[in-house]
Design a protein that fits this description.
Blueprint: H1 3-12, E1 19-21, E2 28-29, E3 37-41, E4 43-47, E5 56-60, E6 63-69, E7 75-81, E8 84-89, E9 92-97, E10 105-109, E11 121-124, E12 129-133, E13 136-140, E14 147-149, E15 160-166, E16 169-174, E17 179-184, E18 187-198, E19 206-212, E20 215-220, E21 224-229, E22 237-245, E23 256-258, E24 261-265, E25 271-275, E26 278-281, H2 285-292, E27 303-309, E28 312-319, E29 324-329, E30 334-337, E31 350-356, E32 359-364, E33 369-374, E34 387-390, E35 394-395, E36 401-402, E37 405-410, E38 420-426, E39 437-440, E40 451-454, E41 458-459, E42 461-468, E43 474-480
Length: about 500
Amino acid sequence: MSDSLASLRSLLSPHGGLHPVPLASASYQLDSVPASAERLLNMYAEKLAPEGRATFILKPTPGTALFTAMGAGPHLASATLAGALWAISGSQAYMLADTPIPAPVLLGSVGTTATDFYSVSIAIGLTGVVFVVPPNAYVTDLAGATLHQITGGNWPAQGAGSVCYQDGYYIFSTYSGDSFFVSALLDATTFSGLSFTYISSSVDFIMRCVAHAGEVWMFCQNSVQVWYDTGDLTTPYFPRAGGVIHIGLGAPRSVVEVDDALFFLGINGIVYRNNGYAGQRVSNHAVEAALADYQGGYLRDISACGFSIDGHPFYALSMPTTGQSFVYDCSSQMWHERSSAANGVGLWTINTAALLGARVLLGDAVNGNMYHTKASFATEHGVAVLREAILPVITSHGPRDFMHRLEVEMEVGTANAPGSIGLSWSNDGGINWTTPRTLSTGALGATRTRVFATRLGSFRQRSIKLTAQAPMTVYGVDCDIPPTTTGS
């Protein structure tokens, strides 16, 4: 063996043994970046079984593909029941039947609302579907044969702010927000003069009414109030004893039912899910810091949607002004970020989510497109989005350490491998980064490929960043950092 070949093999081989580097389990970037720069963009953590190769791995978020188009958009609301999906796209209402090759049916115009104080809503009942685009309401039968505006039957002159359906009744909050009213049983167009109820636990303004767990939840400016069906045909709803959460709603479009709970953004800039009649905080300090800086505290244009895929219930919160989308994984109770852009900058451009049969359908926040989402889809409606993982910082408590070798354990040599990934690092807590090195993940069929880099220099603190322009699944990262290394 020549001396040069021996030297090369010496450089490429581990010096002190490879040791695992912790993977990032969430996006947790603070204002003081060196304190915490962890990030998962278009990737999320999935826990493994106890006998698995690691505690968790990093998976790519599911991609999207065009399913159908509904008008000019954007999608503002969607709901499913009775074998059909009902949606509002732009100023139009649509129905999409659950058939092998469904085609959207235009029901008619429902107009628009010009304020962030209200959100459009859809209530599906036994006798029809009601669309509320404040202050107006429209109703159609379950066949989608007719669509007309609700104006008679003691309909209030001020109009409605939102709608939900419970126990045969269509429940509307008034446009003024100080009360709600209930339809006649199984009739969305008839109302008694006695059906108007003022919220009584405190002076408040109803921003959104939602049916959940057999009760009606009134999301207000200063509180969340729960009402139940008494069975009285004259006054069917009464406030639930103890059913008050003293947290106001920050954004009407942030209320989403997912994972058998109601998620919402509080007026205090904290994201909650209900735990019985209590609000349970689910946001972390990093998400709350982004919300605290948002438009000087004006949160009302923030929107959210919820869906489940591959056993993960997700709550996705989007901030249009700053172009950030944070997604909470109810399975891991961790947050990651999403973006629909190739460079990873900007929103995840999804406004709505609904389940039609076994298909998770997402409505675009910009146009009328509706997408099908599946883990097997490699792109976001044709865009190869950036996938990025910034790992927790490695710190040398003493003299400088040297990193001789780094290996990325990941899926290689398959159709699900990205082909190549970028590796860069920061020695100042994530403020500045090196030019990425390109590491091959092997040709198709090369399933024993080792993804590694050598001669990575010295550091006192180091953050590792992995990027790909295609889905990548990461099992672990290992480094060779000899414990006896000294330097200056």
